[in-house]
Design a protein that fits this description.
Length: 205
């Protein structure tokens, strides 16, 4: 099972998310509930990973991931000022490509099961009105992998907007850095093509 996350510069990203996110009301589910439900779905797919194959895992994970993560906001933050330069058709294609890449990445990383489990260790306030949900992956025979989910209430619902490894490694920050290079040379359309190619590579190993 592969489960690596990357990052840096969390606070600037969260500041951008606050500026971009719509106002929110009260939600019935807590941040920990959202994360626990996602972990349950992920674990179920891991247990059937070999039978499902990467494409089957993609199909099984699509709905839980879309319900747990706010991919549109994450896409908007990842492309920064280029978002305002894109037309609606480009935005729709970009969000779709970003979402598909996120799902296919999980489908590719979590490719087996050998007794792993997920533990939720608690919540604490994060920067810019976020709630951090501390968890870890217990992998028999290996050291636990610490994961922190950054959650924010958006339109009355708690949603995951980033994943951190240890004390400050942000997956979204690295995506933003990677995308900046592509956007400078190929613009929004170039990034869409790049993301879709990565999806094809992950789903057709």
């Amino acid at each position: 099972m592969q489960c690596r996350f990357f990052a840096f510069g969390l606070v600037p990203l969260l500041t951008a998310m606050v500026l971009l996110a719509p106002s929110a009301g009260w939600a019935q589910s807590s941040p920990s509930d959202i994360v626990a439900a996602f972990h349950e779905s992920l674990l179920g797919v891991m247990k059937k990973a070999k039978t499902l194959g990467v494409k089957g895992r993609f199909e099984k994970l699509a709905s839980p991931l879309k319900q747990s993560f706010h991919f549109r906001l994450m896409t908007q933050v990842a492309v920064s000022s280029y978002w305002r330069k894109a037309n609606q058709a480009q935005i729709d294609r970009l969000v779709d490509a970003f979402t598909r890449l996120s799902i296919s990445t999980y489908a590719s990383r979590f490719d087996g099961y050998s007794g792993q489990s997920f533990e939720t260790e608690g919540e604490k306030p994060g920067p810019q009105k976020t709630i951090l949900v501390m968890t870890r992956i217990i992998d028999p025979g290996s050291d636990p992998v610490e994961l922190t989910y950054v959650t924010r209430k958006i339109k009355g619902e708690w949603r995951i907007i980033d994943v951190l490894l240890d004390t400050g490694i942000s997956e979204l920050a690295v995506r933003r850095s990677e995308y900046r290079r592509v956007l400078k040379t190929g613009g929004i359309d170039g990034l869409i093509d790049t993301l879709n190619r990565k999806v094809d590579q992950l789903l057709n190993p």
